[in-house]
Amino acid sequence: MEKQSISIKKVAILAGAFCAYMIGSGFSTGQEVLQFFSTSGPVKGIIAALVYMVLMMFFTYILYGIGQREQFNNPYDVFEYYCGKYIGKFYTWYSVVLSYGIYIVMLAGAGATIHQYYGTSQYIGTYAVALVALVTALLGVEKLIEIIGIIGPVEILFMIIMGIAALVTLAGQPNLLTANGDLIVTSGFKTASNNWLWAAILYSLLGLMFGVAFFVINGQSAKSVKEARISCMIGTVFYTLAIILLTITETVYLDIIKGQQVPTLAIAKHIAPVLGLIFAVIIVLGIYASVSSILLVVTRNFAADKTKKFYIIGIVLTAIGMFIGTLLPFDRLINILYPISGYSGIVFLGFVVYKEFINKNAFSMAKRANVDQMTKINE
């Protein structure tokens, strides 16, 4: 058997691209973690994050591997691979609509962030990020992965810095986490689910449906199945670490985040004004990375990279997203769209499990039975 090659640089870029794609505006602003993890309290929130990590490792291990092995012409072909022609077509279009909906949510997050920090109109932030993301998406898959592969680790680093600040605060007030942990549950924040375990499962299924096509593209970009799978494992671990740190941070700074559309920015400004300035830029960069990726993935369903049709569709989708992204409040958009997205992943997961394990095992058993029968005949 040929030995599968591993490039440390490529693994790092793909892991960083995973983090950048998953972070987006929902995570980097703090709203996503707040609604899925922090509102359950710090202990349950951290356990929920670990549950998410195990599930997401399972999903990405399969999808990165199948992307590298199959090299689909269109990343959305993975739905027909697992679900068959008709259900696969339904899931393809559902995923396109879902991804585009999340794209709009992220544009709203960009507008909310820039408005909260700089006091400018929300329209300015939404339009600016949309246009820069459009230019990046039109550069094609490989260039985009290179760009966002650098942004992802930077975002994780700043989450760690805020987490360290929260731990320092806890060192001086050791009872703060317990006290605020009880209060955050009843503080009136929007929640994805009243059950912490179900919130973790929903979040992982959201990640599955949100990321299917991108996971396949990342897997295709790797040089081997082993390289693809190692990158997704590393990316998932670092992303989960960021979830845990942000859950602790939001609990510690509960008084700071109340009434804020962008909790992380409020925390950063509280820790140090200069950190708030830098983090505002980091959040916008994170949103830009995800928006660029989603726009490219959605547009790829309609046309190949760098064709005239690809450029036209990308421009049209950007224009529509710029308009809709200013209509609803950011936290409300997340609370409506994200939980629904998680529920939609349950059925698709059933098809993946059947194809990868049940059907494969049945095929292997039938093959072994056939070999045994031929051996008896030859004897």
UniProtKB/TrEMBL annotation:
Transmembrane segments: 46-64, 91-118, 124-144, 156-176, 196-218, 230-254, 274-298, 310-330, 336-354
Superkingdom of origin organism: Bacteria
InterPro entries: Na/Glc_symporter_sf, YkvI-like
Nucleus found in the keyword field: no
Keywords: Membrane, Transmembrane, Transmembrane helix
Gene3D superfamilies reported for this sequence: Sodium/glucose cotransporter
Official protein name in the record: Transporter
The species this protein was found in: Clostridium drakei
